[in-house]
């Protein structure tokens, strides 16, 4: 029987890309109610509003998935906002969960917290071995601060807090805004538009030599819900697919899925971001019985079938 059965679960960010998938999976656990505070009603950067939310919601379980996120360009444009908003939302949510004596909290971290030159695949013990890559550092440091808070609150107050670190997410429903989207929707949109217009070349940021690991959003949601349903120690837990790929190879895969036959030009005046990125997800398997199910090829196909009707 699921430990979530009959529980009131508060999902911050529950209306977002990842949050919607989390809510879908919670329905399978026979929860009593799933509450989704929307940003236009509740400002989680406000201690007063967050306190009032917890007073009204009275949650048994909290999954903190709310975040202000974006690609390299968005991080470079708004480093102060990304630092402040992500730190304050998490600090307030965890503190109010403590005050409300919430029985379980799951905090969703970010792979951007890992050091710039961490050796792939990243293991959780390496989180503190260096500073994050500069373009993502304010966001990554803000999220890593919540790990420190989780560990401190578990130690002092005995709180039951799980901290999960998904690698780069993608899938249907992702952000496709050219100004703020991440790499897969950004490249896919360019390919779709180039195919339709007959353009024979697409310009992409960086050298294409940087690598990433991509996790289908439904797989990530399953891991997060398992972290909510199980008693696990307050340790960082990577969620990853176990496949590192360069951006150049990714672009070729996306072009093949879309049916775009033109060329790519690489603008090396733009940053690559972190040189390499992939994670070791053994701890997730050991503690949660979780592993990814959707391959990158299948995930890209699903994403394209959705995005083709959105662009």
Note down, in words, how this protein is organized.
This protein is α/β, with parallel strands linked by helices and 311 residues long. It has a domain at 8-173 and 214-243 and 275-294: NAD(P)-binding Rossmann-like Domain (Rossmann fold, 3-Layer(aba) Sandwich), CATH 3.40.50.720. The chain has helices at residues 17-26, 47-57, 72-77, 79-99, 137-157, 183-197, 217-229, 247-258, 282-288, 296-307; strands at 8-12, 33-35, 61-64, 104-108, 161-166, 168-170, 201-205, 211-216, 236-239, 244-246, 263-267. The protein is globular and about 60 Å long. The mean pLDDT is 96.
Outline of this structure?
Helix content is 41%, strand content 16%. It has a domain at 8-173 and 214-243 and 275-294: Rossmann fold.
**Sheet bearing the most strands, described?**
6 strands, parallel
The CATH class label of the domain at 8-173 and 214-243 and 275-294 is Alpha Beta
The CATH superfamily of the domain at 8-173 and 214-243 and 275-294 appears as NAD(P)-binding Rossmann-like Domain
**Structure classification:** alpha/beta
How many β-strand stretches?
A: 11
Share in β-strands: 15-25%
- Shape annotation: globular
